[in-house]
Amino acid sequence: MTALHRSLTLLATAQALLLTNGVTLVAINALAGYALAPDKRLATLPVVGYVLGSAASTLPASLFMRRHGRRAGFMLGACCGMLGGAIGALAIFRQDFWLLCGATFCSGIYHAFGQYFRFAAAEVVPTEWKSRAISLTLAGGIVGGFIGPAVGKLTRDLLAPQYVASYASLIGFALASLAIAASLRFPPAAAEEQHGVGRPLAEIARQPVFIVAVLAAAIGYGVMNLLMNATPLAMDFCGLGFGDTALVLQWHVIGMFAPSFLTGHLISRFGITSILLAGAALMAGCIVIALAGVTLLHFWWSLLLLGIGWNFLFVGGTTLLTEAYTPAEKARTQGLNDFLMFFVMGASSFGSGLLVTSAGWSVLNQVALPFVALTALASATLWLRRRGRRGETQDP
Length: 396
What we know:
The chain is mainly alpha-helical. The longest helix is centred in the first third of the chain and has 34 residues, at 3-36. The protein has helices at 3-36, 45-68, 70-94, 97-114, 117-123, 130-139, 142-155, 164-183, 191-195, 201-205, 208-237, 242-257, 260-270, 272-292, 296-321, 330-358, 361-394. Helix content is 83%, strand content 0%. The N and C termini lie far apart (48 Å).
């Protein structure tokens, strides 16, 4: 195995562990929060804690890795994941809602560091392989689609009180991730990357490619988060069992990551903006199905399309973002992108619980639709802009 293949395999494995951790949390956080919350409208606050932990640490994580390297950053993130699992188990044992929110905040820090697996993959391959390296690394998350819901189901009642074993199991996944991170090797950072100044961040953020990349990632993640985190509660309100919820979440995560085996090739063939438009269309299809009914089949199809749409928007947005910065600007630009993404996710996580408990599943989906339309409009505008430039270049 070449050094390149070894690095991508390890990064994909680390991504699998990260998503196993994350999907297990998705399966139990809202339900555990609902059981412990002093006000049931705060049921998804532990989910918000997870996202806030990610948002608060994403830029510091990027700057830490700029100074100390990717390997050290991924190891630190895994340690935070272990801490989050331990505090979460303690919170459930003590029946302490606010301690549970603190635990998910720590788990969110692990997630923030883990989000840079995709950028690390892009950095170890030639330029023409960036989209494929990003998508293949994200493909490791498909493992989380199978293992995460199964772990939530198996550990939910394994020990008393309910969910204590689920949170304790997260320690093991983060420990395995720590071992993977310790074995990773990256080429030394270039002098320009470590010591260069680059353009002001405001100038970078005004670029159309940056704006569309952030919209794709932030709205794609925000809408996905809004609907996914409400799904366990919505299905429970509709009389569907936890086994049905685990099945729907499993296929949702498969939809999120299975397309990654092809997304990079599709981007190379059809272009980034075409894939972004396809992602927005799939998310719109998800909402239409969700509004059509609340049977198990409706939830299954809706969440599957939501996952595939997220994949196209996230991989496409990540690939597009790599066009927006020089090596000296990389850490700040990546950090700002992920901060904005997690900020939107935080708002959607908080709104998810409020909307599904007070207004219902249908209203939740209706709220998501204008944001999907905005992403489609921005992607179409960039597509027309690039097509116009190609036409000008070809004119005699």
